[in-house]
Specification:
The chain is 46% helix and 14% strand. It has 325 residues and is of the alpha/beta class. Helix 2 (12-22) crosses helix 4 (59-68), helix 2 (12-22) packs across helix 9 (157-173) and helix 4 crosses helix 6. Bound molecules: pyridoxal-5'-phosphate. Pyridoxal-5'-phosphate is lined by residues 57, 59, 85-86, 154, 183-190, 238-239, 285, 287-288, 312-313.
Length: 325
């Protein structure tokens, strides 16, 4: 693995450029101090509210940075991806805003509600094969046959620096931050934010968090190479999925910048979601509550610290929320 690869492609300059580039599409999100956590744990904890984007998740940042960085010809041909989650929504939304063609490839197993939502965002949806892998293959076929650009969900410098703009916004509002807790799936969010915060202050303590059920990045770090795991059901469904066996950027970056990596149980995730609903009147998805779950379970040392965690998204169905409350 060529460690230098990301060192050239991901610099603070790139993140500042991303911030300017996406500013017409992406609004700055609030950083809210949680007085409830202050009372409970006597620590100053801040929540970066990435659930307040129009599509309900931070993925709009990386998607906007990627699409806006394409050449004129690439823009006129359009883009494709194979995610039905927040990344697919983000690509569809940004493409629509920029008047670009977007083809989202999904397998036959994807529920109709998700496909309808992509259609409403103006995307073309191709339903193909029985697995996420089949859908991915078709995206790469469209790249060859129609010249569409495949927009990867995390292992792409433009996506990483786009997510990194969250780090710049946190520093604007909270320069005294000394601890950050960041949810990890493919690691684009973590890599972008951790890179910015560590460049700003190498003493910064950065904690990665995933769910106990199928934490692929966590197991890959333990094995010191990308591994695959069978997916298990979890409240943090947006954190499911592999990191890519040919991972180039996010695996070495998480390895370099994570001071600590904690896993949270389903009950702990549910308590995090419940806490946000009860104390802050916010509905969020399981993945978005994992940072809070790590704080509430005191799995991370945060006493007398200035902490921020990322509330990453709100793509959750009402039945799940009802059950948890
Ligand atoms: C994608 C996503 C994550 C994880 O981001 P990665 O860059 O894949 O690590 C966390 N929360 C939500 C809501 C997401 O959509």
């Amino acid at each position: 693995m060529n460690i230098l690869k990301y060192e050239n492609a991901i610099t603070l300059k790139h993140v500042w450029e991303a911030k300017k580039r996406i500013s017409s599409i992406v609004s700055k999100t609030p950083l809210m101090q949680s007085s409830a956590l202050q009372e409970k744990l006597s620590t100053s904890t801040y929540l970066k509210l990435e659930n307040y984007h129009e599509i309900g998740a931070f993925k709009i940042r990386g998607a906007a940075n990627k699409l806006l960085s394409l050449s004129k010809e690439e823009k006129s041909r359009g883009v494709t991806t194979f995610s039905t989650g927040n990344h697919g929504l983000a690509v569809a939304y940004v493409a629509k805003t920029l008047n670009m063609r977007a083809v989202i490839c999904v397998s036959k197993r994807v529920p109709k509600a998700k496909i309808d939502r992509l259609h409403r965002l103006g995307a073309e949806v191709v339903i193909i094969g029985n697995s996420q892998d089949d859908a991915a293959k078709h995206s790469y076929f469209l790249e060859q046959s129609e010249g569409l650009t495949v927009v990867k969900p995390f292992d792409d410098p433009h996506v990483i620096t786009g997510q990194g703009t969250i780090g710049l916004e946190i520093l604007e509002d909270l320069p005294e931050i000394d601890t950050a807790i960041i949810p990890v799936s493919g690691g684009g969010l973590f890599a972008g934010i951790a890179y910015v915060l560590k460049q700003n202050n190498p003493q910064m303590n950065i904690i990665a968090v995933s769910m106990e059920r199928s934490p692929v990045m966590y197991e890959s770090l333990r094995a010191n190479r990308p591994v695959q795991l069978d997916e298990q059901d979890t409240l943090a469904d947006s954190l499911l999925g592999g990191i890519g066996l040919d991972n180039e950027y996010t695996f070495p970056m998480v390895k370099k910048y994570a001071d600590n990596f904690v896993l949270v149980s389903e009950e702990e995730i549910a308590s995090g979601m419940k806490f946000l609903a009860e104390e802050h009147r916010m509905i969020v998805e399981g993945a978005a509550a994992t940072g809070l779950a790590a704080i509430l379970s005191e799995k991370v040392p945060i006493r007398n610290k200035t902490v921020a965690t990322i509330v990453t998204g709100n793509n959750v169905d009402i039945e799940t929320i009802k059950r948890i409350l």
